[in-house]
Specification:
With 400 residues, the protein is an alpha/beta fold. It has helices spanning 7-21, 38-44, 57-66, 104-114, 128-134, 150-158, 227-381, 383-391; strands spanning 28-32, 49-54, 72-76, 89-95, 115-126, 163-169, 202-208. Helix content is 56%, strand content 12%.
Length: 400
Amino acid sequence: MPGQVDPDLWNEHFARYSFAARLARQKRVLDIACGSGYGSAELAAVARTVTGIDVSSDAITYAKEHYPLPNLTFECAPADAIPHTDQSYDLIVAFEVIEHLESARSLLSEARRLLAPGGQFIVSTPNKLYYEETRRISGPNPFHVHELEFEEFRTLLAEFFPYVSLFLQNHISSIAFQPAEMAGSTEVRMAESHAVPTEAHFFLAVCALKPQTGSPTFVYLPSTSNVLREREHHIQLLEHEVAAKTQWLEKALADHQQLVREHEAQTEELKQRSRWAEELNGRLKAASERIVQLQDELATEQKAYEVKVDELHQDILSKTKWALDTEERLTAELTGKLKELAECVEILHRTEAQLEERTSWALALQAHLEQMEAKVSAVSASRWHRLGRTLGVGPELTKS
């Protein structure tokens, strides 16, 4: 974000767009991963049209609000799926985005599809070796998926573009002689030096589908301020920071000494506790041995108990069998007795019936006898019977 980052960081990003602006005159330009849009606006100063795309809707909103230029449009789209027709652009730039993607080849394939036959594609990425060295304390960048070394970068680009011109981007010191009263043309003289890819900060490549002419060195001077004066101010700030850190270190040292003393006291206390722990461990060992002894005794008693339980179980089984057998025998005997009792009851019923029958017969006979006796008494009392007895005729009636 302009004005919200370290000047050196801003300059290394803005310098790439200054490099690309030389190739953007009156061209249809696509800025992939345009971010807040400052670079797209720089290209729009010389291009026919510029389209900036970014996957972040917040970045696109910021860009539209801050760079409302007539030949500049912004769209929200991913770098590897841009919704435009083939061969739509004469110049495509993709600065510091390829290392953020899961598939770098998808971006390169998309750039080749959108690039016109005579167009150019400019892409940059940090040098993996240098980047790892600068971040050895802070650690890897969590937003980088795959960082590239020089030969890896060159080989990857060659898969999609037959013509690739590689540049090395570095911060360099310079000495400026600037007119005090009137600004004139600027001349730059750069001392001869041999560029070493492994020591470069960033790699930048200009790729094309047709041969390119020339690869001049481009120098971007961020400002004409007195760098030495700025560095002296920076050194003063650092000295204040060092003094503050020295005070902090002195306090930390005092705290450390206090911690050492506390550590020694804790060490002595730990020794005492260690001796107590050893004594406790001995008591624990003796208790453990006693537990083992009790466990052995319990095991012996358990075996005796199991034998006794088994004997009781067998005795119970035997008595249960006897009880069942006795129950079965008694049941059989009871059944027989009940059968006999039933027969006796039947005989008794028949006897009672016969007794009742004979009682009725005896009563009837008794009644008949009484009737006969009454008749005999009547006959005996009659005068005819007496006359017959007197005459010696007739039967002799006597009671028996």
